[in-house]
Amino acid sequence: MAEKKFNTKLYGIFAILLVAAVLVTLTVTTYISRYNGFHADKVAQVYVDTIVQTGDGYNALKNSLLSKDQKFGDFIRVNYLYPAIYENYKPGDATKELKGLSDDSLKGEKTLGDDGTLQGQLIEKMYPVYTQLLQANGSWDAYDAILRGYISALRTERAALYGDEFFDDEVFFTCLEANIAAYGDTLTGTEDVFDKNTGVQTSFASEGAYQKKYGDDYKFTVQAVAEREGASAFEGSPECKVVTVQVRCGDTVVVEGVDVTLVRVGRTWYVDQDASDTAALYTFYR
């Protein structure tokens, strides 16, 4: 019987393919475990945690269906800001050739000469507007009412302060995000701040609502405690889950459970913001 020869070339190719397959499997597994979007419970936890830590339902929506096809900021531009800036604008229209309130020709002397002082005043004027909208609507679940109300009030306040009709997305995002940060400070408290160049104290420490309620060393932890199949009005998703998320401060449960509805699009889970109720996350510290 002829001696069987060992095909080292074929074995080498097989070995390379086997190692490659193993590496691909490990890479995919690692990627899935690290990427929260592949896990409904983790997306729900991030959504709730973002709200709980600083009252920031605005940034929480970046994990929702509103951000499925585009960045959340672009969603706001297309559906809320551009219709306010450009006359007869409809979502999807090109803005390059359109003239609207963002046209430089509308900038008055105060706008052109502002060194940041008027901008700061506008942010201060808009803060009570933001808090009133949030309180009246209960949470950022009512994003439509909050955004429309804020934009309308911002245009009015800016026109009165600057004396012109100029308005663009930078005006909006600068004011809104500053207001959201200031609201978060009322919850978490602040530290003393000193100018790094002069050493002069520019702001003083303040006690936040969380500290008053739970003490200086409070620490919130957010955990998904239950999961069930759900139903969503969103079309095009093969799967829907409702994840119950609990909030603790130390060993104390401060929010028994918030149900977050999620849908899977492709391999990624998104919060269905229209089917979720996060109002309890804005009142548990009162």
Question: Briefly, what is this?
Answer:
This protein is α+β, with helices and mostly antiparallel strands and 286 residues long. The chain is built from nine helices and six strands, in the order ααααααααββαββββ.
Can you tell me about this structure?
The chain is an alpha+beta fold and 286 residues long. It is 46% helix and 15% strand. The chain has helices at 8-34, 40-54, 57-60, 72-85, 109-113, 117-137, 143-162, 169-188, 209-214, and strands spanning 193-194, 201-203, 220-229, 239-249, 252-265, 268-271. The strands form two sheets. Strands 3-4-5-6 form a four-stranded antiparallel sheet. β1 and β2 (201-203) form a beta hairpin. The protein starts with 7 loop residues before the first helix and ends in a 15-residue tail after the last strand. Mean pLDDT is 89; it is low at 1-34.
**Mean pLDDT, nearest integer?**
89
What separation lies between the terminal Cα atoms?
89 Å
Estimate percent helicity: 40-55%
* Broad shape: flat
DSSP strand content: 15-25%
> What sequence of helices (H) and strands (E) makes up the elements?
HHHHHHHHEEHEEEE
Radius of gyration: 25 Å
Biggest sheet, spatial arrangement of strands: 3-4-5-6
Unreliable spans are 1-34
- Structural class comes to alpha+beta
Give the helix tally: 9
Task: Find the count of extended strands (DSSP E, 2+ residues).
Answer: 6
Largest sheet: number of strands, sense, barrel closure? 4 strands, antiparallel
